[in-house]
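To illustrate this point, we now present one chain and its tokenised fold:
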Amino acid sequence: MRTPRVWRMLSPAAISTSMQRLAVNSGFVDNPKGTRGFHIGVNASIWIHQLLERPSSCKQPELVVLFERCAQLLQIPIMPLFVFNGPRLPATKKMAASQLPEWLVTDFQELLDAFAFCWVEAAGDADAELAWMSKTGILGAVVTDDIDAFVFGAKSVIRTMKKNRLSKEVTSLYTLDDIAAHPALELNQCDFLLVALLIGGGYSDGLPYCKVDTAIALAHAGLGALLMEELDQGGDLSAWRLELINELETNHSQLGLLPASIPPGFPDRAEVDHYLHPITSEHLEPPLVPNPVPSRGLDLPQLVKFAEENYIWAGSDASYMYRYFSTTIFPGLAMRQLLQSACVADLGLSHRPCPMIGSIVSLRRESTSSAPRAPELRLNLNIDASTKSSIFDQRRGGEVVDLTNLPFSQAWLPLTVVEWVQPELLVEFLHRKGGVRGVEQAIQDVAEAYPINLASSSGSASGMDDDNTEIDQSADAGFDSEEENGHEMVIEGGDNSQVKIEDVLA
């Protein structure tokens, strides 16, 4: 299908957001699956195709981009399931699938294993598999660039992001219900089938003179619904084809050659069957029901090995590797700890605060840009000795590193996630920086942009145990305090502007 043009036509029904905000709202807060994460399915082939469009043809750049994309997903409350095309992919699509380098597919799967992200091989078409999981509620959304996902019946589609920093980009969310309800569109699944057959898609070459605007106009004229009725009745489509030609000659006479270009056998039944009856895992014996929830933790040594093999700078001093992991991997590890603690709390079990979460450094309110992000906290991270050792023990250089003299780690993590698990940290931060007066106003100011339940927290940080207090203080020691610098503590805005804490507490 002529994908870019169709996406532009659907833009009135798109919701512009960020992957981070979508994950926090739809995954952590709404918590429909009880995992505190947003379940999404990703067409892995789309990611790989995008990398092959890059100007470089060597192995390293593609894998590095995949690494950084996965690291970005790790830092938000999301449970991704990557789906690869399977052995029963129809022949009409196998040619395109065969163009993917086998080594890149294999290395990508190994990288997903290291990140503890789930992946499966579809029975046939990956988009059909994802659409089936969307319709059955296994997934909250499908990440793909292919409009065919709507033809297969996907309920929610996220437009694939092409840059490697996912959370910094605008994410467009399309739902079949919104597209059907929008007065300028009013398209449903049978209409998308008609559009795919007319202009061409994964299984159809389309009609040579049919444009996207014309196909959508024919859908609005009821040709898609009529086609589906004829298909359900099982008869031949000659009457429908005559109705199509009549509509073109009557109301679209300016199209010239299009009515005459419709062949006697249009549409091809085999092409229609590929769309309406795709082979998915539900047809296997026994049926396979994929699960995006990982069954194990991240493999840090394997990620270190990957960096050594694929990054040019990996042979430099060991502290450089540590600094890189501090900004890419450690924030994700902290996020996974928070999600595990939240799930434990949901079960009504007692839990201790996450060991990686240190003190709060600053707060960034919800941005109002075209890619709005949920409020975030900048946190000091406590990296234990075993994690540090697991990085340096894997390095081939074997250099001796002083683990006590490494740079401190910080991360921006969603305010609501941190507050849900350790509410005393935010209350203590507001008291420490704003005094007792105005704390309630500061909480209300944050809550206006995002719902949090600080009211259930105590009015001070006295709920923290002595060990955590010591950890927070040691983490603080790595950063200049406001007293030492003579600067006022700030709350950073989503557009990187800075607001004085006094202004918020006023």
Remarks:
- DSSP finds 24 helices and twelve strands in the chain.
